[in-house]
Amino acid sequence: MEAIFITDATSLIFEYPVSGSPPAWTTISEEIDLHPGSDIIQSTSSSNYVIYRFKRASGLTFVIVADPTVSPAVPAQFVQLLTDSMAQYFVLAKLDSNYDTVTLILSETLDNGVPYLSEPDQVREFVSKGGVLSKLLSQSATPHKVSRSAADGPYWRRQNVRHTQNELFVDVEESITCVVRRQGASKTTPVVSYVDGSVYLTSHLSGVPEIELSLSRPIAGGKHVCITKSGPASRFRFTPPDGRTKLLTYTQDVNVSSYLVNCTFHTGLGLQKDEFEVRVGVLMNRGVKAVDNLAVEVFGGKIKTLRNTTGDFITNQKGGVWNLGTTTPMGFNATFRGICDGNVSHVTLKYSLQGAVPSGLKVDSVNIVAARGLGEGVKPYKGVKYATDVAEYVVR
Fold this sequence. Notes:
It is found in: Endomembrane system. Helices cover 13% and strands 44% of the residues.
């Protein structure tokens, strides 16, 4: 890699030159402006580099300048390591107050432009949370190398982990992508309907534990490097990194009827055929207390409200947004009817909830099968949570 730049929505906020003569940000930004919709840009001013752009939910954009011979997977994996490592020290939105920490993280993770650390736990061994700038100034320019024996544990787990309160948490999170036709709920036929799922483990365990995670059904997808032993595709054994780790990822087709929130809409209603109606329903579920931040956006022309059973409808240039509150009870139903001076093309649904996931995946058990260094008689607190949100839910 030649250089690393970090920007917010308006300007450059951090840069880190890697090579001896990296391209200037003004040159890179001009290249990006010429290709506003591209995340991988071959330089037009020089054949010596490729520009990779990675946008993050924090509002930050990471720009990596690399040699054309570098695999695109390398910058992508490095940005993930960098953001995960930064998140251990500060909220990413506070980057402008933590330049010294970011600089030290980069100096420890790159060796002549090549990433040689692969886990946030490794970074934590070299970058302390206090006095990082003075530490950086006092250190030798020679990079540290990771050196450890098998007795120290695997490379993805930092050495000599100690916790006064030992805990183990599993989070199953699924994000919905769904496009359905606008017919009545009983006839709704999905164009596409699936979830992207992730299983996270938060481990605060002393020593070098070995964990076995059993799920209610097999899943196929990505696995963290720590998962070195597995039987059936529903059972996994591993020594976890310390802290929060994304263990598993998967994608699964899901029937629309599995979603706890459904939405339908009809157009061409009324005497003048210029009315439309949107209906939202929330199913009952014993594990879910409420739906959070439920909202429907209507895309059309100028809209006038005829009937609204609950919530607030706020018009905008695209049509309007029907906000149903920060918390919506289970078993809830609501209807919005309006007049549109144009054609209502589609509506989108947004919400999140805690306590269930659409695929029905469950954690059957999470057990410590070996506990070297944990301490005799220590019984960690364990917990499991489920969460759902919407990446895209369109009714058209």
